[in-house]
Amino acid sequence: MPELVFFSGTMDCGKSTLALQIEHNRSARGLQGMIFTRDDRAGEGKLSSRLGLVTDAVEAAEGFDLYAHLVETLSQGGRCDYVIADEAQFLAPEQIDQLARVVDDLELDVFAFGITTDFRSKLFPGSQRLVELADRIEVLQVEALCWCGARATHNARTVGGRMVVEGAQVVVGDVDASSDIGYEVLCRRHHRRRMTAASARAAALSPDVLPIDAGGVRGSAV
C-alpha cells in the first residue's frame, strides 16, 4: 500500500541527503519521481544537501497545488512513480493535505522531509499537519550534535552568533553562526539557556571565569 512517510529531524542531520539517496536508488531502478521543495538553500527549484549534492525540483510556492500539478502531469502523458517533498515544514497545511490526497487517490508513495519545530521550539504548521496525517513518521538516526557534544534536539536562530527567540518563523539561512543570520543545533539545556557555541566561547574567555594563577599572587609575610 502506498504511504505518506514523514522523515523528521533537526537541521544538519541529513534529511536532504536521504531525500537525494531515495531519488538515486529509485531512479536507478527505472522509476521516475516528482520532487517538490520550498525555500531550499541552493535557490528556487533546487533540492540540495550540505554535502554539495543538488538536483532540480519543482518549487512549491505559497498557493501552489501539488495534487493538481501531478494530475496535470499525468493527464498530459507524463509519468510519476513516487513523490519527494523536501523542506516540508515550509509547506502550508493545505499543501500537506494535497500530498495525502496524492497517496490516497493517485496511489503514489510520498516521502516528506522536514524539521519538526522552529527556532522557538514551536511546531511548523506544515510539520504539525504531517504528524497528524502521516502513515509513518521516521526520526532520522544520524544525530546532529550540540557544541557541547550532546545530541542536538532543538534548532536555534542566531544573529551575529547570538541566539534570538523572536522574529518571523521562516527566514532562510544556514548552519553558519559566522553569518549575520544563521542557524545552530543545540541540546535542550543550551537552547533553554540560549547558549550557542559563540556565547560559550565568549564565556570561557571572560576574565570573570578565568582561573587565577595562585603562583603569581604574592602573599604577605606572617
Give keywords.
disordered C terminus, 6-stranded parallel sheet, EC 2.7.1.21, nucleotide-binding, 11 strands, 27% helix, 6 helices, 222 residues, 3-stranded antiparallel sheet, elongated, alpha/beta, Thymidine kinase, thymidine kinase activity
Describe the structure.
The protein has helices spanning 15-28, 66-75, 93-106, 125-133, 188-192, 197-205; strands at 4-8, 33-37, 46-48, 54-56, 58-59, 82-85, 109-114, 136-139, 154-159, 162-164, 181-186. By secondary structure, the chain is of the alpha/beta class. The strands form 3 sheets. A 6-stranded parallel sheet has the order 5-2-6-7-1-8, sandwiched between helices. The protein has a 3-stranded antiparallel sheet with strand order 10-9-11. Helix 3 links the parallel strand 6 (82-85) and strand 7 (109-114). The chain is elongated, with a radius of gyration of 22 Å.
Task: Record the SSE blueprint.
Blueprint: E1 4-8, H1 15-28, E2 33-37, E3 46-48, E4 54-56, E5 58-59, H2 66-75, E6 82-85, H3 93-106, E7 109-114, H4 125-133, E8 136-139, E9 154-159, E10 162-164, E11 181-186, H5 188-192, H6 197-205
Parallel strand pairs: 1-7, 1-8, 2-5, 2-6, 6-7
Antiparallel strand pairs: 3-4, 9-10, 9-11
